[in-house]
User: Which sequence fits this backbone?
């Protein structure tokens, strides 16, 4: 707003200061209106007898300020009161006092900002950053990846002063095919390690989520056992990777164990998700009764109990 005033007043700082003081005074009056009330307001809301007592009490406590509408009149006071705010009034006040950017820059104002040395002069900013000149522009081009190829990178012409012939018109430019490098055993082991750690965290997470649910203690124990087993396998994988083992035979037995425990872990996580979804259904979706929901949880818990424990697999 100060910048707008500066432009509208043709850079007259005295007028800018006057406008700022006027807005500040209006803001203070607005704040006063929403925290203080005059004697007529108190009489209207509380009656003359009670309002007289309230005003006397406010004067004793020092909860009064001069009325800005009557400057210099010490008898005109505003009294601080607890009022119930009306949201419609607040929205209207916001709409009325909202600052709207209006007006436009004239030619002189634009010139003051974009002329050489102005705050919008690009060369001024480049010189501040140490990027002026040919060397600075080259550094900037390299930083944003638009630098032209250097002279050493360009192909020099062949014998006889003739360079390489241009491609015939209409000939399509072919790019060399990408060479697909197969994954090495150690890189595959690194990917498997990440998946094992993720599955272990998933088991622990769902074991924690099942704690508030009744009849889920057996499934919680099995999820924890899966997480422990996966943790041991992750340690074994990490040990082989750190030793630089890069042959398939080094990981064959361990990969088979990982696939087996991962399968058991997925079954129990899926069962845990089903129990959690059943417990989160709203009351309206349970068409029969709460006993049916409890029965489904019992069946799920029974299935989890009868399933083989991966910790002893």
Assistant:
């Amino acid at each position: 707003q100060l910048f707008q005033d500066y432009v509208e007043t043709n850079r007259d700082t005295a007028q800018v200061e006057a406008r700022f003081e006027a807005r500040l005074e209006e803001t203070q009056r607005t704040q006063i209106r929403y925290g203080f009330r005059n004697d007529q307001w108190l009489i209207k809301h509380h009656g003359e007898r009670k309002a007289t007592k309230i005003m006397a009490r406010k004067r004793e406590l020092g909860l009064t300020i001069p009325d800005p509408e009557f400057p210099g009149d010490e008898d005109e006071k505003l009294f601080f009161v607890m009022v119930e705010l009306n949201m419609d009034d607040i929205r209207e006040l916001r709409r009325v006092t909202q600052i709207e950017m209006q007006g436009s820059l004239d030619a002189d104002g634009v010139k003051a900002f974009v002329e050489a040395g102005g705050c919008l002069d690009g060369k001024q900013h480049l010189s501040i950053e140490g990027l002026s000149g040919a060397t600075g522009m080259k550094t900037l081009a390299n930083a944003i990846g638009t630098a032209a190829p250097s002279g050493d990178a360009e192909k020099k012409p062949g014998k006889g002063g003739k360079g390489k012939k241009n491609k015939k018109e209409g000939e399509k430019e072919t790019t060399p095919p990408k060479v697909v490098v197969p994954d090495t055993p150690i890189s595959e082991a690194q990917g498997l390690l990440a998946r094992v750690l993720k599955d272990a965290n998933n088991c622990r997470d769902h074991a924690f989520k099942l704690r508030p649910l009744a009849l889920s203690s057996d499934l919680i124990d099995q999820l924890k056992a899966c997480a422990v087993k996966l943790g041991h396998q992750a340690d074994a994988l990490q040990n082989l990777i750190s030793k630089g083992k890069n042959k398939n035979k080094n990981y064959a037995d361990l990969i088979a164990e990982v696939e087996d425990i991962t399968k058991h872990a997925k079954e129990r996580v899926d069962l845990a998700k089903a129990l959690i979804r059943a417990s989160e259904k709203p009351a309206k979706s349970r068409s029969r009764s709460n006993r049916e929901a409890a029965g489904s949880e019992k069946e799920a818990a029974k299935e989890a109990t009868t399933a083989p424990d991966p910790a002893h697999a």
About this structure: Strands lie at 36-37, 64-66, 77-80. Residues 7 and 203 are 65 Å apart (CA to CA). Residues 248-280 form the longest helix (33 residues).
